[in-house]
Design brief:
- The structure is a homodimer of 398-residue chains.
- In chain A, 43% of the residues lie in helices and 14% in strands.
- With 398 residues, chain A is α/β, with parallel strands linked by helices.
- Chain A is globular, with a radius of gyration of 21 Å.
- Chain A is built from 15 helices and 13 strands.
- In chain A, strand 5, helix 9 and strand 6 form a beta-alpha-beta unit.
- In chain A, the strands form three sheets. In chain A, strands 2-8-7-6-5-3-4 form a seven-stranded mixed β-sheet, sandwiched between helices.
């Protein structure tokens, strides 16, 4: 008696989430130390001590009615102002309190944005490979996913194909840089070039095409690679940020939406996003965490930890003969499966207690995603298992 | 360029939320002590000290990776088990971990349930007067609201009209007891009688009709009036609970869904609700608060505080000549407007710095809703203003 849509989703439940559950079951069976669960982006670096301190500070120094009470659906004004000022200091933007809406993580924020802009039948572009739930988010509001190709070596968007996929019904493009699952980061030039294509098509069709930038990995970039701020490169950009990865708070569901005053229909869009936050059932981002974040805007997670994992994993796997994309950001390694069928490869990997996510979950077959936000020890200890896996496929050590 | 649906909602934004913003502006202008904002259900009783202690305990005694990390989309197993056991102890039910899904408050929970069960065009019954956002929640998933009449004296559902409104497309009925805005509580007999009507229609049409019981006010009942547990009175009942009012945590967005094993299609429904939690962008209920709640299941808010407010307000207003419904539960007083146009009456009340919600927001014209979850002082100090308002309408003191 459940809906047809949900019936089909229960049959094809998220591979990643199913693996998360499977990993927990395997850990019970074999012992946690013998299971190598690379399936989910659950950070292994603890929240910075400033976050723990801020929780105590906020609770001890404020009226519980204030900390745990309702505020505007868009969030505490003090928190939104502080975030705007932080962005302005970091990127030379010009945001104020009415350009920021606190959200229930990035997933909540994207849903609020899509609810606000999509009429049924509107098209939303995504660049392959892409996070599987973008499709569900878009379809929640009757939108239609349209895929854009990327360069299979660099994973940069194919601009010709982008132009070709835009129609009069295109309402938005979702980008994700640093990227899940590839770790690729779009340069300022790439964003400018994309912006040009979009602007040209906006004029051609007389439409607005919003660029929705999903940025949970913004602060995870390695080797000094810059992550440009998209609102500086496109006039209709909306940013959705989350503290899940940058402060290791994925369970707390805290993030924000940046709605620049320059976007088309800004005033309606801002009001509508507040309403969408309410009627989708979020009501507001969790209140205590908003106030905690406000005290921790200058905090950073220990990125050297992930960088160390990245190097060990990338070097270890390439030495074993696996072909890998070297990630510039995020905490995922995209590795080519030695056979075409990535799901079959993941099943075989499971024999060695290695839990990898098949890339067909990201609409890009033939690869696996390895989340290296685990303990360094886990990566080191997994290497003999990966070596056995490489041997099974006859890979040659380099 | 925003969606047509959201465009129309921005034009007719929630009266309650708009008033919340207006109240804040008026407080700045006239001084908080001179504004009598009865517009929103923001509790004035602070969270119990046990909650504050539990936050410190959870943070101090656990690994931050555990407290702030991802767990299953349905929530921590320990929290869900503890809630199931608490319900079993309180109501003699037989729930286990797989009957409980942690939710982002009751609003989040209702959205998850409706996403799970509704096909576009499915009908959802609501009993007038009803919380305005039920309509938005239902329409989020393409559902159609069908209104059922209640007795204008007792606000109990009109069972004949209920039977008449049920069609082959009826997928659910949303009930809310103790009720917002009337404070009415449905007795066991009322629930049994409703259940009979629904069961008979299920057989007639060969359908399942879920009773979705929205219970943020369950623990706010006065004069010893019992709030029966609906799953004991109807075989297809789903409960959505929130700690917003019972523990004064409305900003934290923490609640749960009870999915009894007895409901039709239980297994699919339970899995689908986990998936809906994910794809609607909630991902999971805020993690720290789940663990805090787990330690506070026996806590109660100070209901005598609200009861005192209730008596002062009810007695004061009826003495002034206003006609009021005496509430058995929740923290709202439903008062008849002395003129037909409740919006006009609220506008006039504003002259006296009295912020009341017009009942036409609840699809029941001619009344106002007065939220008495404010300080007692606020109620006492508002009485002279209400007296002036009564005078303006020529009401006679009793």
């Amino acid at each position: 008696m459940i809906s047809d849509k949900m019936k089909s989703l229960t049959k094809n439940n998220s591979v990643i989430r199913a693996m998360f559950e499977e990993g927990k079951a395997m850990a019970k069976k074999y012992g946690a130390e013998n299971v190598f669960d690379f399936s989910i982006g659950n950070p292994n670096v603890p929240a910075p001590f400033e976050v723990v301190d801020a929780i105590a500070d906020v609770v001890n120094e404020n009226d519980p009615l204030y900390i745990h009470g309702y505020m505007s659906n868009t969030g505490y004004e003090s928190t939104r102002t502080a975030i705007a000022e932080k962005l302005n200091a970091d990127f030379g933007t010009n945001f104020g309190v009415n350009n920021i809406i606190m959200s229930v993580g990035a997933a909540g924020g994207i849903n609020v944005v899509l609810k606000t802009i999509l009429n049924p039948g509107d098209e939303v572009l995504v660049i392959r490979p892409y996070f599987v739930d973008y499709r569900n988010y878009v379809e929640n509001y009757g939108g239609v996913i349209v895929e854009v190709e990327s360069d299979p070596k660099t994973f940069m968007p194919n601009l010709e194909h982008l132009a070709k996929q835009i129609t009069a019904k295109t309402k938005a493009i979702i980008i994700n840089t640093p990227n899940n699952p590839t770790g690729a980061i779009y340069s300022a030039e790439t964003l400018d070039a994309m912006g040009e294509v979009l602007s040209k098509k906006e004029k051609e069709f007389g439409t607005s095409i919003y660029m929705v930038s999903d940025e949970p990995y913004r602060d995870l970039a390695y080797d000094g690679v810059e992550v440009p701020y998209v609102t500086l490169h496109y006039h209709n950009a909306i940013v959705v940020y989350s503290y899940s990865k940058s402060l290791s708070l994925p369970g707390e569901r805290i993030g924000y939406i940046v709605v620049p005053s320059e976007i088309d229909d800004y005033e309606d869009a801002f009001v509508a996003m507040g309403i969408a936050t309410r009627i989708l059932g979020f009501i507001n981002a969790p209140s205590l965490m908003q106030l905690v974040i406000e005290q921790c805007l200058d905090c950073k997670t220990d990125i050297s930890y992930y960088d160390n994992n990245r190097k060990t994993l990338y070097n270890g796997l390439t030495e074993l003969g696996f072909e890998c994309v070297k990630p510039d950001g995020a905490f995922y390694l995209f590795m080519k499966a030695p056979i075409d069928d990535d799901k079959e490869f993941c099943n075989i990997a499971k024999k060695y207690n290695l839990l990898l996510v098949p890339s067909s979950s990201f609409a890009w077959p033939g690869y696996v995603r390895i989340a290296y936000c685990v303990s360094h020890e886990k990566i080191v200890n997994s290497m003999p298992r990966f070596a056995e896996l490489a041997k099974e496929f006859g890979l040659e050590k380099k």
